[in-house]
């Protein structure tokens, strides 16, 4: 079942900036769908199929998606994980949920089954704008608390393990600004999802072990 997380970090500095993240654990095998997202079975894993439809992303959203994808590639390469594919179907659902969070000024997991989900929120009373590496770097930095000898789920490291999870093949990326551009919400969805108990040793490799 899903275990929804709680804010892991809140950082204040002289610019009145705040950072929040949520972590998600996956302990299920599911073929349930979210909205019209289609899941197919490949190599004994649930994989979300790209609809190749009209996703209607803005140029700024596309740029952010590509930056986020590149940041994942950079960090995954350190841990023997292959590059990911950007999936428009996942990105559409991630973008819709990011906008929902921004519009309602809330921060919580969607409860979407069949995907992994990393969330990031930052705010600054003077206005804020981020690039695609900001959230991924914040998630990856949890590596400092991860024990590679006894790999398992932890609320303190779940973002990191999902970012570098070897069996994950594709991601969807959403970003939305709220409160007159003083807050930003990032949603990244992963397929197949990571953070399955009992699979950490094979999917989260130490740096330099390739």
UniProtKB/TrEMBL annotation:
Domain SCP stretches: 63-198
Gene3D superfamilies xrefs: CAP
Residue intervals passing through the bilayer: none
Any Pfam family the entry gives: CAP
InterPro entries: Allrgn_V5/Tpx1_CS (IPR018244), CAP_dom (IPR014044), CAP_sf (IPR035940), CRISP-related (IPR001283), SCP_GAPR1-like (IPR034113), V5_allergen-like (IPR002413)
GO cellular component, one term: extracellular region
Protein name as catalogued: SCP domain-containing protein
Organism: Rotaria sordida
């Amino acid at each position: 079942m899903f275990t929804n997380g709680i804010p892991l970090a809140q950082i204040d500095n002289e610019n009145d900036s705040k950072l929040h993240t949520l972590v998600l654990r996956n302990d299920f095998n599911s073929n349930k769908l979210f909205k019209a997202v289609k899941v197919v079975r490949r190599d004994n894993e649930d994989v979300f199929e790209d609809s190749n439809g009209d996703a209607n992303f803005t140029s700024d959203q596309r740029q952010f998606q590509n930056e986020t994808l590149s940041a994942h590639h950079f960090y995954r390469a350190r841990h023997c994980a292959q590059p990911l594919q950007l999936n428009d179907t996942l990105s559409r659902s991630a973008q819709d949920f990011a906008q929902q969070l921004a519009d309602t000024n809330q921060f919580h997991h969607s409860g979407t089954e069949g995907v992994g989900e990393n969330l990031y929120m930052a705010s600054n009373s003077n206005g804020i704008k981020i690039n695609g590496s900001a959230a991924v770097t914040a998630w990856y930095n949890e590596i400092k608390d991860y024990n590679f000898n006894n790999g398992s789920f932890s609320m303190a490291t779940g973002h990191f393990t999902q970012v570098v999870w070897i069996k994950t093949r594709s991601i969807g990326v959403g970003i939305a600004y709220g409160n007159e551009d003083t807050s930003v919400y990032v949603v990244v969805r992963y397929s197949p999802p990571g953070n399955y108990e009992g699979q950490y040793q094979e999917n989260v490799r130490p740096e330099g072990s390739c």
